[in-house]
Amino acid sequence: MLKECLQSRLYIAVLTTEEYNEPVKIYTEIENNTEISSLLDKWKSENIKKIAVDFEGEFNLHCYGEHLCLIQIFDSNKFYLIDPLKVQKSVISALLENKEIEKLWFSVSSDAALVWKKYGIKICNVRDLALEAKILGIEGGLSAICKKIIPDYKEDSTNTKKHNQKTNWMHRPLSPLQIDYALSDVEYLFMLQERLDKIAEMQDKKKETESALKKEVHVNENPIPGYKKLPGYKRLSREQKIYIKHFYFAREKTAETLDKPPFMVLDKHILTKLAVKAPQDKPVLAVEIRNKNKKTEKLLLKALLEAGKEAEEEIKGLNSTRQGKHSLQQDR
What's the CA gap between 73 and 55, in Å, rounded? Predict the structure, then answer.
């Protein structure tokens, strides 16, 4: 069944000599629910109980919001690319929450936070090799650690993490460079686990690492609201904090409407400035938020004016409550 489903999307993508000097890896592309279910069935029938996994995502860089853009997998024999933009949450959950399959990962925390926030999924049965390396006193990112302990490790200097940090993973089709980079993140994880396990035995830390790695992946289910992370927030007065909260959500609403990253709608430092100067009338506010894109400016101005009114109402409500409590105390 899987062979029939996936046969038409088995690829070798070849880069031009200007981009790269070698063909990228052979991989199978998975773009629908049936193919993921078939892949899980295939692994079960072949008694495959361990896979290497990593994600690529979008984090308010090219469009609004955080998005899971790609799931890359290596089962020690074959590479797979799953397109989360084309499949349902239920099959992503069936893969990531599967307790029978161990998932080798390098630094799972941010990926776990992404799928929890986006889908409410908690990744199960993970072996975080970054954590294992840290316990063994081996510091660094994936490529740095692989260089230290894997003799046959080869890093492509033309396709590094820095090169791909600002690439648009939402865009389709993905470029051969993007695909090669994504697959390279899982290519060496089996080998890395093997080397780390040997080092753990040499250091007599096998029990320590196993104990630490058996713990469930921690996900912060109640993260700090974004407006509390804005510059200067802690130094604001009570009233200013109320204003910046409403201004922050006004910017978010506008960014979502336009499908733009919030920083392209209004700089975070200006949000703080607006809160400090609040309340402001329309002409003054319009000067503060000038934007090259007039549509963005118009929508944002309207949202901020409404947010200012909401902040004023909240402040009035708090003041009335305080005055009421003060009167009660005097009566007593």
Answer: 9
